Amino acid sequence: MGFAESPERMLGLKELFDIYLKFFKIGAVTFGGGYAMLPILRREIVEKEKWLSEEAVMDFYAISQSMPGIIAINVGSFIGYQRRKKLGAAAAALGVVSPCIVIITIIAACLSNFQDNVYVRHALSAVSVCVCALILDSIVAMWKKGVKDVFGMVVFAIMLVLMTFTETSPVLLVVLSAVCGIICKSLQERSKDKTEKGGNKQ
Fold first, then answer.
1. Which of these, 13, 37, 183, 145, lies nearest to 99 by C-alpha position?
2. pTM summary value
3. How confident is the model at residue 58, as a pLDDT?
């Protein structure tokens, strides 16, 4: 029995290692936080590996925004969990943070030699511009997947006004949006049921 289980265990370990390497790669080339990670995540996870649909990834992003912690780690953990449950979530989370730990350690050790380097300053300024482009791409993708009808436009407008002109907590805005979605969906289903019952009576 031990020999029969060995190939399965090896296959499982390989899959966990693949998850770790994939998110290590994503974490190593992501600058600007979780939102800038979305274009890379879509290419690697959705288009290349086909582990999840784009809709699922966007749902994980939406949930991660209302949770404590770093968005990139939260999203990675969700995706890893979908692949290999708890071990997959751990492998994905470790993959995301490993490049950060390595890079920060190196920078901390060499900071005094690089902080005043003109080439480093110019490189960082160019990276900032690239991050803006990545975040803009993420906004466009989230808009296409999230704002699909009049209800979505109304919720977007209300939340934008509250976030811009008040000091309402983003967490509260996310919760309010979720409640609005539940109420709207419930009303739509009730209206659909009444229409179907009325059609059956005729």
1. 37
2. 0.65
3. 83
